[in-house]
């Protein structure tokens, strides 16, 4: 009864770490065990549905499930139960995975420390006598659930780094696929053009297994990449991959910020040196417009958010304030005042940047900045973005790089109390500076822990050209094998 | 280019073949209420009845005032229209739920329609074809690539908090609609009646419909069935109004055009078409347009006229008193028969238009527009020309009556043509000999409008419920025109056939045969016998005897000439009528007249 033992151990971990606030809903013991039992019987009978059959999966609470409420950690959706499963959840279930619970997060995915939650802050387990550290955000609950052994892997969402940053802070693997690979049907939108479902796990292999189970085209998601396009992109990429020779690994100079902690910079260098030792070429590259990425992101994402969150007026579902209009006739304002401070801040910022007086200077400018940033990436990769072009010559070819390696966070996880002392909420936005560029470009990126000293790790990020998860996995595994934490 | 590549909605020739070019007509329910709401709220009936009453009262009041209203001569009135028309599509614009007119409330809602968290739009190509037809029929340039944008505002019947529309790049631009003298007499007065007056169409765009609110005193009930149904919004250029009827004529013409190409088939009375009207006035002789005010959500032609009249009066009042017209959004106050301020410039809603990040562009393959254009049914002006031409000989008025049946029911004209063709074929060479004013097209038109139309109206049947097939009507008229039955018989037959009983399976021939309805070949002697009996009858309280006495008196008198002859004829026709009645119209009147004359000569 191996699976059942694992499940029991996971639930014990969940109970032990209840105070970390990683979970908003948990599956009942009997139901969970009966599902695991069923998987075990299938596996014993040689009828395993997939490599994740019977594995416990935690799901971020902005991904719709019929078995649990889907709250987005918001008062407005505190009681909301979706009538449908998100496609990624449905696929995970069909592969035999057991959904063990829903994880805590920043309200609607807006935050970098998972502390803007209606259900209270997520925390990392405190190290002897020290205060609790930030779990990172917004998928902090998923990261802590994985780090503390509550589940085999977890689903998160990554809009500007929301899977990678918590992974870096909690010392686990966090993967954001190319935009359009994993269906967003049933994923409650924060910023549609940037939102991706991401996966967290302790090892690359567990992330990859879950990814294989839920990856694929979905007719319900208009931004899902069609099978024909997937095939074409894969075909072009595989034709022009460097085979039987060393890879070219780039490190973007613009990511070497003054604000980088020494431990982070040292680990970055160590990682590059490790790959160089394995006879891969390591070269510096320039992504000259990276400095605009953060501001472009913080215009575009709130703009889309202000639009997406307009539906939460309490009329059809969710929380409704007893008084739903102000004296001056403004509809639903009292209800919408129940959003948390950070969500309100971004709705207001987004509404402003879309207003007729500001749209030219903010939203449209940010959109063109985004295009320029994407071009930056295509200018350094060996292969072009086959979503946009079908011509291999548009890549850099021999001079280009196969992957980019950069840190994922400026420092190790800060103490939560320090975060709360920050003068401006904008201070937290800076944390996304290293993750946002890949989000704007829509390219795959994976954050994995690289050991720094005996017990500490630093999150290192591997980014690849659009659709080239294969090369990304390859390099990530080289790093994991050589520099990652010891296997359990 | 952003990294996202939402699936494009690409329409090509294959789509044209696989999608239904002719979409099913909605079956329009039988009974109408006078309000735009199709559901009678059965709660708090008192309030509802009160509302209804005050609506009727104010409609009456404003009708009265409208009669006397003409635009003040010192001003030029300019108007711009935004027409919202429901697309003839079986499914909503971005979900798989069916469109419906009279389904029980909230029975056609997909997750996306209710804006459930996590749901996403999915563009239905079936909504695109009627929209392309509309754009082509309105002479627009159909853009190869158009896009969807979100228009934000809060309202409970708008579940997402935004409406998906086309703001930055629309489906069609730069078209026009032309009004002729037959559309409104106001065109003639401009002196260019023959040419017509052109009203520019600035834009034709796809967008989502909203839900429907059924309001009463304490609660507002929301029905989401209509949410997300496909609309086209047609935005006209501003145009000068020679009279208020010109504006409603434009709406009517647009509606007729949309119906003719089956782009929009639901009439205004079902909320299928709504108009926003921009009105501005300026002193005659000046060029710069005055400040405009927008009047929102007018759901009938009458309301369009009333609202413009009232708004012009209001603006004139302001200017005459030395005031300045402010930019405002106004609504129509049913109670008062005036427009009312909804919000001023400072309260203007900033819709914060944003490209929809989930939806890709709509791409129309080269040649598709051409195919649609070639397959387009004739437009109203062409139909009118045809119906009033040598083929059918209808008067403009009758042709328009047929064309605007049930607000432009598209199946009336084919029905009419079918009947004409069937009758013509049945009559054979005789058909060529129809006298002027008695052409088959004209006769069929009269029967359709007056007899069939009258019967349907009496029974409150819509055209779609017409129980008479073209074959049946054609057969009936053929019997009439070949003198097998009299006109009176034909009328009564039509009335019988129009209330079909399931047991009635006989053909017209069989009914005529079995019910003995055919004109009897009555011999001259038989006819004269009947006339004699009638003239001599005393079963009518002595009236026959009285008439006879008067005729005798005339015969005896000396007064000569036309006066006497005329009077005598009038008196004789009394007997003709009596005989005709007795014969139930089975003998032609001319023969009866002859027989009466003959008998009278004997008797007097």
Label this structure with key terms.
heterodimer; A: 488 residues; alpha/beta; Amidase signature (AS) enzymes; eleven-stranded mixed β-sheet; 11 strands; 36% helix; B: 604 residues; alpha+beta; ten-stranded mixed β-sheet; three-stranded mixed β-sheet; 18 strands; elongated; disordered N terminus; ATP binding (chain B)
Describe it for me?
The complex is a heterodimer of chains A (488) and B (604). By secondary structure, chain A is α/β, with parallel strands linked by helices. Chain A has a domain at 3-235 and 406-483: Amidase signature (AS) enzymes. In chain A, 36% of the residues lie in helices and 13% in strands. Chain A contains 16 helices and eleven strands. Chain A has helices at 2-16, 29-44, 87-94, 140-147, 164-170, 204-214, 227-239, 262-277, 293-308, 333-336, 341-354, 363-380, 416-421, 426-429, 436-441, 469-483, and strands at residues 23-26, 56-60, 98-103, 153-158, 173-176, 196-201, 248-252, 281-285, 403-407, 445-452, 456-464. Chain A has an eleven-stranded mixed β-sheet with strand order 1-3-2-4-6-5-10-11-9-7-8, sandwiched between helices. In chain A, strand 7, helix 8 (262-277) and strand 8 form a beta-alpha-beta unit. In chain A, helix 1 (2-16) packs antiparallel against helix 2 (29-44), helix 9 (293-308) packs across helix 11 and helix 9 (293-308) packs across helix 12 (363-380). Chain A is globular. Chain B is α+β, with helices and mostly antiparallel strands and 604 residues long. Chain B folds into three domains: 78-363, no CATH class; 378-515, no CATH class; 524-603, no CATH class. Chain B is built from 18 helices and 18 strands. In chain B, helix 9 packs across helix 11, helix 10 (412-427) crosses helix 12 (470-481) and helix 15 packs across helix 18. The longest helix of chain B is centred in the first third of the chain and has 23 residues, at 45-67. The N and C termini of chain B lie far apart (104 Å). Mean pLDDT of chain B is 83; it is low at 1-5 and 20-48. Chains A and B meet through helix 9 and helix 12 of A and loops of B. Chain A: It is found in: Mitochondrion. Chain A: Belongs to the amidase family. GatA subfamily. Chain A: Pfam families: Amidase. Chain A: It catalyses: L-glutamyl-tRNA(Gln) + L-glutamine + ATP + H2O = L-glutaminyl-tRNA(Gln) + L-glutamate + ADP + phosphate + H(+). Chain A: It is an enzyme of class 6 (ligase). Chain B: GO terms for molecular function: ATP binding; glutaminyl-tRNA synthase (glutamine-hydrolyzing) activity.
């Amino acid at each position: 009864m191996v699976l059942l033992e694992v499940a029991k151990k996971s639930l014990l971990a969940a109970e032990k770490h209840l105070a970390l606030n990683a979970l908003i809903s948990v599956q009942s013991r009997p139901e969970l065990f009966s599902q695991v039992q069923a998987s075990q019987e299938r596996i014993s009978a040689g009828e395993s549905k997939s490599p994740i059959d019977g594995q416990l999966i935690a799901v971020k609470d902005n991904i719709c499930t019929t078995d649990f409420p889907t709250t987005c950690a918001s008062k407005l959706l505190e009681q909301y139960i979706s009538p449908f499963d998100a496609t990624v959840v449905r696929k995970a279930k069909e592969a035999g995975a057991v959904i063990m619970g829903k994880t805590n997060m920043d309200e609607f995915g807006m935050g970098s420390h998972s502390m803007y939650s209606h259900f209270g802050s997520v925390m990392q387990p405190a190290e002897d006598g020290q205060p609790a550290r930030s779990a990172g955000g917004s998928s902090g609950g998923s990261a802590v659930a994985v780090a503390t052994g509550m589940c085999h892997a977890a689903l998160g969402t990554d809009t500007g780094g929301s899977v990678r940053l918590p992974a870096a802070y909690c010392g686990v693997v966090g993967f954001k696929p190319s935009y359009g690979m994993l269906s967003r049907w049933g994923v409650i939108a924060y910023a549609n053009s940037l939102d991706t479902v991401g996966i967290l796990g302790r090892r690359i292999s567990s992330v990859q297994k879950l990814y294989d189970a839920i990856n694929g085209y979905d007719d319900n998601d208009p931004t899902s990449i069609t099978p024909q396009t997937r095939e074409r992109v894969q075909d072009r990429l595989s034709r022009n991959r460097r085979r039987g020779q060393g890879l070219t690994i780039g490190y973007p100079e613009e990511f070497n910020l003054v604000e980088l902690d020494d431990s982070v910079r040292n680990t970055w260098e160590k990682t590059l040196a490790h790959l160089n030792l394995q006879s891969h070429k390591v070269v510096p590259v320039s992504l000259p417009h990276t400095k605009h990425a953060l501001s472009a992101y913080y215009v575009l994402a709130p703009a889309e958010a202000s639009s997406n969150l307009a539906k939460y007026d309490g009329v059809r579902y969710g929380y409704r304030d007893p008084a739903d209009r102000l004296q001056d006739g403004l509809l639903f304002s009292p209800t919408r005042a129940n959003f948390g401070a950070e969500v309100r801040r971004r709705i207001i910022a987004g509404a402003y940047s879309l207003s007729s007086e500001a749209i030219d200077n903010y939203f449209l400018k940010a959109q063109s900045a985004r295009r320029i940033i994407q071009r930056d990436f295509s200018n350094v990769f060996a292969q072009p973005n086959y979503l946009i072009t079908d011509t291999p010559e548009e890549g850099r070819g021999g001079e280009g790089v196969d992957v980019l390696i950069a840190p994922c966070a400026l420092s190790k996880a800060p103490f939560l109390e320090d975060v709360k002392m920050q003068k401006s909420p904008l201070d937290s936005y800076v944390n996304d500076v290293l993750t946002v560029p890949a989000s704007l470009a829509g390219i795959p990126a994976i954050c994995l822990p690289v050991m720094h000293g005996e017990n500490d790790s630093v999150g290192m990020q591997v980014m690849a050209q659009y659709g080239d998860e294969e090369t990304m996995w390859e390099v990530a595994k080289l790093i994991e094998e050589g520099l990652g934490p010891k296997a359990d | 280019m952003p990294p996202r590549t939402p699936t494009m909605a690409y329409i090509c020739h294959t789509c044209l073949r696989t999608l239904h070019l002719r979409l099913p007509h909605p079956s329009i329910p039988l009974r109408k209420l006078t309000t735009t709401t199709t559901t009678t709220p059965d709660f708090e009936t008192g309030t509802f009845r009160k509302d209804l009453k005050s609506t009727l009262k104010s409609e009456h009041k404003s009708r009265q005032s409208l009669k006397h209203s003409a635009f003040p001569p010192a001003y030029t009135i300019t108007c711009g229209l935004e027409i919202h028309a429901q697309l003839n599509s079986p499914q909503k614009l971005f979900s798989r739920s069916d469109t419906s007119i009279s389904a029980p409330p909230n029975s056609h809602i997909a997750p996306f329609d209710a804006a459930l968290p996590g749901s996403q739009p999915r563009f239905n190509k079936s909504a695109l074809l009627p929209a392309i037809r509309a754009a082509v029929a309105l002479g627009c340039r159909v853009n190869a690539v158009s896009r969807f944008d979100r228009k934000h505002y809060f309202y409970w019947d708008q579940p997402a908090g935004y409406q998906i529309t086309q703001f930055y790049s629309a489906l069609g631009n730069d078209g026009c609609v032309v009004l002729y003298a037959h559309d409104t007499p106001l065109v003639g007065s401009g002196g260019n009646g023959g040419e017509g007056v052109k009203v520019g169409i600035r834009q034709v765009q796809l967008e989502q419909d909203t839900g429907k609110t059924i309001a009463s005193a304490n609660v507002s009930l929301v029905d989401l069935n209509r949410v997300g149904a496909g609309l086209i919004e047609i935005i006209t250029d501003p145009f000068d109004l020679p009279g208020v009827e010109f504006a409603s004529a434009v709406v009517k013409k647009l509606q007729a055009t949309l119906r003719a190409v089956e782009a929009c088939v639901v009439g205004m009375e079902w909320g299928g078409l709504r108009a926003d009207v921009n009105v501005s006035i300026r002193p005659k002789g000046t060029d710069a347009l005055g400040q405009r005010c927008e009047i929102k959500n007018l759901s009938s032609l009458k309301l369009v006229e009333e609202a413009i009249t009232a708004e012009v009066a209001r603006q004139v009042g302001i200017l005459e008193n030395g005031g300045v017209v402010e930019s405002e959004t106004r609504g129509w106050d049913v109670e008062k028969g005036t427009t009312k301020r909804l919000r001023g410039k400072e309260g203007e809603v900033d819709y914060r238009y944003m490209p929809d990040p989930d939806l890709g562009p709509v791409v129309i393959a080269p040649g598709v527009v051409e195919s649609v254009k070639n397959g387009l049914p004739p437009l109203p002006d062409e139909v009118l020309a045809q119906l009033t031409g040598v083929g059918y000989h209808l008067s403009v008025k009758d042709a328009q009556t047929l064309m605007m049946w049930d607000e432009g029911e598209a199946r009336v004209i084919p029905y009419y043509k079918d009947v004409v063709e069937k009758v013509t074929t049945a009559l054979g060479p005789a058909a060529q000999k129809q006298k002027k004013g008695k052409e088959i097209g004209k006769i069929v038109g009269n029967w359709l409008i007056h007899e069939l139309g009258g019967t349907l109206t009496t029974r409150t049947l819509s055209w779609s419920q017409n129980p008479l097939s073209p074959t049946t009507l054609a057969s009936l008229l053929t019997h009439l025109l070949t003198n097998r039955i009299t006109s009176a018989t034909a009328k009564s037959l039509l009335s019988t056939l129009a209330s079909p009983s399931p047991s009635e399976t006989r053909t017209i021939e069989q009914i005529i045969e079995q019910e003995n309805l055919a004109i009897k070949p009555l011999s001259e002697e038989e006819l004269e016998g009947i006339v004699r009996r009638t003239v001599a009858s005393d079963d009518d309280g002595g009236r026959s005897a009285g008439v006879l006495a008067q005729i005798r008196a005339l015969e005896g008198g000396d007064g000569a000439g036309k006066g006497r002859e005329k009077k005598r004829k009038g008196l004789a026709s009394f007997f003709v009528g009596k005989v005709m009645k007795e014969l139930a119209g089975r003998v032609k009147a001319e023969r009866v007249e002859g027989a009466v004359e003959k008998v009278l000569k004997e008797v007097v």
